[in-house]
């Protein structure tokens, strides 16, 4: 196998590319006030607009009756410009799993997935249009990277899901978003600034943000070590999910090409440092592929790699039955091999679960998001 091309830590937009419209979700509360004042509008209206967006979940200006009718359109245009248009929503699990295809302002396509369970509602959001990490078993990675998403474009996926739950459009009656996972399209830590901005908007108290608990937010990465270390110092105790997929460099170089820059040992050490700094348990994501990474000896090796940093409960392994993607040469592991993998990890004291594969039939499960219009 030839050496893969080096992958970027951060994707920088080409010069001259038009940026998404500036939205209140891109801004802090003081910045929203300043923007209105710069446009000759009353700065105090920023709080009212924020309340409509984040707390009331209103998207119809006609319902914003505390704004003066003569200025309403101007105020909404200044801080609540349209960001994305839903093109299609597919449903599974009797309507409790909903995948939405969005068209962004420049025609780029992304997908998000809302999954409602009896005790929670989780939104899986995209952070980039496409992905540049080139993992060969992932449909998104095979499509390449188009561009980073803005903070507001990321947040809007969650707010749209929150509106649907609030309005009772999802079976189970009115509800609220309890969890957000950055496991949709893109490598979140390659769009670091926008993702951290989105995390802050999600966790800022209303009306500055959605008022979610940081413990309900999971940020996934394939292992951008400098960014993992940076995230550990942000002071926001989100859950870190490390997509490891192999415990040895030889195999991981093939499955997760960024491993040619940051080895398994470096990546796991960064994850351990994150757990030590934040006191938050790290989730190790591991897609189970038949005959590729599901052998018993690799389960033992994975346990040894993780236990090298102590047994104080810093880590949890989340096995993911591989979801089918067009043209992939890999298939899901045999259930017996999966059970043996779990048994061996647990024998080494590693808490292990097998992920629920919600949305597989609508190509909404892990690794299946491809954002195609037809």
Automatic annotation (TrEMBL):
<keyword id="KW-0411">Iron-sulfur</keyword>
<feature type="active site" description="Proton acceptor">
    <location>
        <position position="111"/>
    </location>
</feature>
<dbReference type="InterPro" id="IPR004383">
    <property type="entry name" value="rRNA_lsu_MTrfase_RlmN/Cfr"/>
</dbReference>
<dbReference type="InterPro" id="IPR007197">
    <property type="entry name" value="rSAM"/>
</dbReference>
<dbReference type="InterPro" id="IPR040072">
    <property type="entry name" value="Methyltransferase_A"/>
</dbReference>
<feature type="binding site">
    <location>
        <begin position="186"/>
        <end position="187"/>
    </location>
    <ligand>
        <name>S-adenosyl-L-methionine</name>
    </ligand>
</feature>
<keyword id="KW-0808">Transferase</keyword>
<keyword id="KW-0004">4Fe-4S</keyword>
<feature type="binding site">
    <location>
        <begin position="243"/>
        <end position="245"/>
    </location>
    <ligand>
        <name>S-adenosyl-L-methionine</name>
    </ligand>
</feature>
<feature type="binding site">
    <location>
        <position position="138"/>
    </location>
    <ligand>
        <name>[4Fe-4S] cluster</name>
    </ligand>
</feature>
<feature type="region of interest" description="Disordered">
    <location>
        <begin position="1"/>
        <end position="29"/>
    </location>
</feature>
<feature type="binding site">
    <location>
        <position position="135"/>
    </location>
    <ligand>
        <name>[4Fe-4S] cluster</name>
    </ligand>
</feature>
<dbReference type="GO" id="GO:0032259">
    <property type="term" value="P:methylation"/>
</dbReference>
<keyword id="KW-0819">tRNA processing</keyword>
<dbReference type="InterPro" id="IPR027492">
    <property type="entry name" value="RNA_MTrfase_RlmN"/>
</dbReference>
<dbReference type="GO" id="GO:0008168">
    <property type="term" value="F:methyltransferase activity"/>
</dbReference>
<feature type="binding site">
    <location>
        <position position="323"/>
    </location>
    <ligand>
        <name>S-adenosyl-L-methionine</name>
    </ligand>
</feature>
<feature type="binding site">
    <location>
        <position position="131"/>
    </location>
    <ligand>
        <name>[4Fe-4S] cluster</name>
    </ligand>
</feature>
<keyword id="KW-0479">Metal-binding</keyword>
<comment type="function">
    <text>Specifically methylates position 2 of adenine 2503 in 23S rRNA and position 2 of adenine 37 in tRNAs.</text>
</comment>
<comment type="similarity">
    <text>Belongs to the radical SAM superfamily. RlmN family.</text>
</comment>
<keyword id="KW-0408">Iron</keyword>
<feature type="domain" description="Radical SAM core">
    <location>
        <begin position="117"/>
        <end position="360"/>
    </location>
</feature>
<feature type="active site" description="S-methylcysteine intermediate">
    <location>
        <position position="366"/>
    </location>
</feature>
<protein>
    <recommendedName>
        <fullName>Probable dual-specificity RNA methyltransferase RlmN</fullName>
        <ecNumber>2.1.1.192</ecNumber>
    </recommendedName>
</protein>
<dbReference type="InterPro" id="IPR013785">
    <property type="entry name" value="Aldolase_TIM"/>
</dbReference>
<dbReference type="InterPro" id="IPR058240">
    <property type="entry name" value="rSAM_sf"/>
</dbReference>
<keyword id="KW-0698">rRNA processing</keyword>
<keyword id="KW-0949">S-adenosyl-L-methionine</keyword>
<dbReference type="Pfam" id="PF04055">
    <property type="entry name" value="Radical_SAM"/>
</dbReference>
<feature type="binding site">
    <location>
        <position position="220"/>
    </location>
    <ligand>
        <name>S-adenosyl-L-methionine</name>
    </ligand>
</feature>
<keyword id="KW-0489">Methyltransferase</keyword>
<keyword id="KW-1015">Disulfide bond</keyword>
<keyword id="KW-0963">Cytoplasm</keyword>
């Amino acid at each position: 196998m030839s050496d893969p091309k080096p992958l970027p830590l951060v994707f920088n937009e080409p010069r001259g590319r038009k940026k998404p419209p500036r939205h209140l979700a891109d801004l802090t509360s003081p910045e929203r006030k300043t923007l209105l004042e710069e446009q000759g509008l009353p700065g105090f209206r920023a709080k009212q607009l924020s309340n409509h967006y984040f707390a009331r979940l209103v998207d119809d200006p006609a319902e914003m009756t505390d704004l003066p009718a003569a200025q309403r359109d101007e105020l909404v245009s200044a801080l609540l410009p349209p960001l994305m248009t839903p093109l299609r929503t597919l449903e599974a699990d009797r309507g409790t799993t909903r995948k939405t295809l969005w068209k962004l302002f420049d025609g780029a396509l992304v997908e998000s997935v809302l999954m409602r369970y009896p005790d929670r509602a989780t939104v899986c959001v995209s952070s980039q249009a496409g992905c540049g990490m080139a993992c060969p078993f992932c449909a998104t990675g095979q499509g390449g990277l188009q561009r980073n998403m803005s903070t507001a474009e990321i947040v809007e996926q969650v707010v749209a899901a929150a509106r649907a739950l609030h309005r009772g459009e999802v079976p189970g009656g009115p509800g609220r978003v309890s969890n957000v996972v950055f496991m949709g399209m893109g490598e979140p830590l390659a769009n670091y600034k926008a993702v951290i901005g989105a995390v802050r908007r999600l966790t800022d108290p209303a009306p500055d943000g959605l008022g979610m608990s940081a413990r309900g937010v999971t940020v996934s990465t394939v292992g951008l070590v400098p960014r993992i270390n940076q995230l550990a110092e942000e002071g926001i105790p989100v859950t870190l999910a490390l997509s490891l997929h192999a415990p040895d460099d030889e195999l991981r170089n093939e499955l997760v090409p960024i491993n040619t820059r940051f080895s398994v040992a470096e990546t796991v050490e960064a994850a351990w440092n994150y757990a030590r700094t934040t006191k938050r348990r790290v989730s190790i994501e591991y897609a189970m592929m038949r005959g590729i990474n599901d052998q018993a000896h690799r389960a033992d090796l994975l346990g040894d790699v993780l236990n090298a940093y102590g047994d104080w409960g810093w880590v949890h392994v989340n096995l993911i039955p591989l979801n089918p993607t067009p043209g992939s040469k890999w298939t899901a592991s045999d259930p017996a091999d999966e059970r043996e993998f779990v048994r061996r990890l647990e024998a080494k004291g590693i808490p292990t679960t097998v992920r629920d594969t919600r949305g597989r039939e609508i190509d909404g499960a892990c690794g299946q998001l491809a954002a195609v219009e037809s």
